From TrEMBL:
One of its GO terms (molecular function) is metal ion binding. Pfam families: SNF (PF00209). Na(+) binds at residues 128, 384, 509, 513. The chain crosses the membrane at residues 268-287, 299-325, 345-365, 377-403, 496-517, 538-557, 569-592, 613-636, 656-681. Keywords: Membrane, Metal-binding, Sodium, Transmembrane, Transmembrane helix, Transport. PANTHER family: ORPHAN SODIUM- AND CHLORIDE-DEPENDENT NEUROTRANSMITTER TRANSPORTER NTT5, SODIUM/CHLORIDE DEPENDENT TRANSPORTER. This is Orphan sodium- and chloride-dependent neurotransmitter transporter NTT5-like. It is found in: Membrane. Its main location: membrane. One of its GO terms (biological process) is amino acid transport. It comes from Ursus maritimus. It comes from the Eukaryota.
Length: 721
């Protein structure tokens, strides 16, 4: 086969007319991140009158440049669309005087896309994005209440069915216009949903709150270990005395939560500063583009595993860890036949891997086209599953310790109550509890209670509260992630050290996810608006500032209730629709067979042809069933939220107001509006449902040149992205 230089030389010597020359060559290293380059000069053909020697010199220079391009085959390739139109066939006839380039794309053609320094940084960034705290906690709750070890089977099954697209060298907006023009609006919908995701991660998932708690962890003792004293008094705050210190510190000191979502209020100042610091950190890590992002991820992603292992080994030595580990290995057979559990597990897979949000595609668009993204997808999915299992093991041990300590305190409090009642004469002397419960309060108290005569036992039970370890263990709910873990850390000897370590873990996980999401926002903006490519640093700062300003709305006293409304009831519907349409676009609009043939060009034979069957038949059916079941479940369910009642100092269940539901429906219609709008536009413009380059690969192959324009003979054979 001829090399690029040979093909280029032969084509030029046969086809160049006397009046055509090649314009100034592009610089070798033009990237989005070089601010000094203001213009992106396209490669065009210019008419001039020159003698034969000059034209031959130009052709020779073009040949040398093509040879250099061949040696730079490991660099990134240009990926924008080049529309070349020729008015005459190339049967050894001269080229036309000009090769037309679309005016709208003239300033966007032939730029060098920045790439990851190495594959390790790329994989770490994909893994870091998938390590979202909310997904890990949701996985733990599903395991605890629904599945036991059977949930692992559902997780593996769901990850095997997941339609991962990691190979397209475009942002999430442009790529779906190429795969299926009529479904191009799904990219805009995904971008709008993704723009709302950072606020949920920063606030609900703890990045902003972790910074606040991290700063408070350097106090000794930690402020959530004991109730605060009243001003000019030795008595504890009565509101804190009615609940636990950690619960009081969470709702009243940290969030300053209102009793209802209807209650307004200005942003909480104690949260505004951590919110600002969080976005400053994200912006600083990404200010220099992929070069700084990749280096930062090399630290942020491995660090949590080291911290998790330290916390896991420490939790295994705690009292009650064995009880928690036993529940980890339990399997609930009845949950295997519960469709609601399967629906929750399916949604968990979508959120855990970040499918439909767009960063997966945006991050992979900066990788070399020759990279086997299929293996990358399996690596990311397996590492994500391993991380979930590791965090779940640690969480069960901590939950067992927490339930044991709370049960011990409950029995000690019952002992004090019974002793006072016996002293007052309300109970007989036989009801006097054991004097020493220091060794094992729960075991000693329960043994003493079981030896009492039934009449006295009934009298004792009427005055004490039930202290059941099993029920306390299963009380873990949405608030356990921070409140119970924080309370547990205060029980461990050396609570300051372990609290700092725990909040560092949450902070690194949150930053890793935020960086992936921010890259998923910046890349489509730079792909859509070419002027942003020359101002990467300014764009990063502007987006970070806008995200901070929008986040102030959710730092109000009722902001946490708004965040939970979006995360628990709203996000799942548009994301499921996005993934269904993306799956249809790849499996049917572009055709899975053709898609896999393009992959064969890049990587050789694939590992298994079953992928085509999954994309075309099984995945669409499973995703559609998931969407229908979720929609039915939400329509039949009362939309409620857990609120703080300052009068009783307890968590209460309240129903969202009707205007909250209307806002949720309006947001859903707004973010999904681009899909039908773009579809109608394509119908009016008579744009085909399938790609116009039918029969031609849309994935750049290894043989494409890096800088020079392809001769017309090659352009007729394949389309360059």
């Amino acid at each position: 086969m001829k090399t690029e230089a040979q093909v280029s030389k032969s084509s030029l010597t046969k086809a160049l007319p006397p009046e055509i020359e090649l314009s100034e060559a592009l610089p070798r290293s033009q990237t989005w991140e070089d601010k000094r380059i203001a213009n992106w000069p396209p490669m065009v053909w210019v008419s001039k009158s020159e003698d034969l020697k000059t034209r031959m010199a130009k052709a020779l220079a073009w040949e040398i440049q093509a040879g250099e391009a061949q040696r730079r085959a490991s660099q990134c390739r240009p990926v924008d669309v080049l529309e070349v139109e020729a008015t005459e066939a190339l049967n050894q006839k001269p080229l036309p005087e000009k090769v037309q380039v679309a005016e709208k794309e003239k300033s966007e053609v032939f730029f060098t896309r920045p790439c990851w320094s190495n594959k390790v940084e790329y994989i770490l960034t994909q893994v870091g994005y998938s390590m979202k705290i909310s997904s890990m906690w949701r996985f733990f709750l599903l395991w605890l209440h629904n599945g036991g070890c059977k949930l692992a089977l559902r997780e593996v099954t769901g990850r095997f069915f997941s339609p991962l697209i990691l190979l397209m060298r475009q942002g999430n907006i442009g790529i779906w216009k190429v795969i299926s023009p009529c479904i191009g609006g799904v990219g805009y919908t995904s971008f709008m949903v993704r723009s709302m995701l950072p606020h949920r991660l920063v606030l609900e998932c703890g990045q902003c709150l972790d910074l606040f708690y991290l700063g408070q962890s350097f106090h000794f003792p930690v402020p959530w270990e004991k109730c605060p004293l009243l001003e000019n008094s030795s008595d504890f705050d009565p509101e804190c005395a009615r609940t636990s210190p950690s619960m009081y510190f969470w709702y009243q000191v940290t969030l300053k939560a209102s009793d209802r979502i209807e209650d307004g209020g200005s942003p909480v100042f104690s949260l505004n500063l951590p919110l600002l610091v969080s976005w400053c950190l994200v912006g600083a890590f990404m200010i220099n583009g992929l070069k700084s992002t990749g280096k930062v991820m090399c630290v942020l992603v491995p660090a949590p595993y080291f911290i998790i292992l330290c916390l896991l080994f420490r939790s295994l030595l705690l009292e009650g860890a064995a009880f928690g580990f036993q529940h980890l290995l339990l399997a609930k057979i009845s949950a295997m036949y519960n469709m609601n559990v399967w629906c929750q597990a399916g949604n968990q897979v979508l959120f855990a891997l970040g499918l439909g949000f767009g960063p997966v595609v945006s991050l992979s668009s900066h990788m070399y086209p020759s990279t086997n993204c299929l293996s990358d997808a399996f690596v990311v999915a397996l590492v994500n599953l391993f991380t979930m299992l590791l965090v779940t093991s640690f969480s069960f041990c901590v939950l067992g310790f927490w339930a044991t300590i709370i049960t011990h305190h409950c029995n000690e409090k019952n002992t004090e109550t019974l002793a006072k009642l016996v002293t007052l004469g309300k109970l007989p002397v036989e009801a006097q509890p054991p004097p020493n419960l220091a060794d094992n309060p729960s075991s000693i108290f329960n043994s003493w209670l079981s030896r009492l005569h039934q009449p006295i036992k009934d009298m004792v039970l009427s005055y004490v509260t039930e202290c059941n370890l099993e029920k306390q263990f299963l009380k873990a709910g949405p608030s356990f992630a921070l409140v119970a873990f924080i309370e547990t850390m205060s029980f461990i000897p050396g609570s300051v050290f372990w609290s700092i370590l725990f909040f560092l873990l949450l902070q690194t996980l949150g930053l890793s996810s935020m960086i992936g999401i921010m890259q998923g926002i910046l890349t489509p903006l730079q792909d859509t608006f070419s002027s942003f490519r020359n101002h990467t640093k300014l764009l990063t700062v502007v987006v970070s500032v806008l995200m901070f300003l929008c986040g102030l709305f959710f730092t109000r006293p009722s902001g946490i209730y708004c965040i939970r409304l979006l995360s628990e009831y709203w996000t799942v519907l548009p994301i499921t629709i996005i993934i269904i349409l993306e799956n249809i676009a790849v499996g049917w609009a572009y055709a899975a067979r053709r898609f896999l043939e393009d992959l064969v060009i890049m990587w050789g034979p694939l590992a298994s042809p079953i992928i085509r069957w999954l994309w075309c038949f099984l995945s669409p059916v499973v995703l559609l069933a998931l969407f229908v079941i979720t929609l039915i479940h939400l329509s039949l369910k009362t939309i409620t939220y857990v609120a703080w009642d300052s009068n009783s100092s307890k968590e209460v269940l309240r129903q969202y107001p009707s205007w909250g539901l209307l806002v949720m429906i309006a947001l859903f219609l707004i973010v999904t509006l681009p899909i039908p709008t773009y579809f109608v536009y394509c119908l009016t413009q008579r744009i085909s449902f399938t790609p116009t380059s039918q029969g031609k690969p849309v994935i750049s192959s290894k043989s494409l040149p890096l800088i020079q324009p392809t001769p017309i003979e090659e352009v007729q054979k394949e389309e360059i992205l």
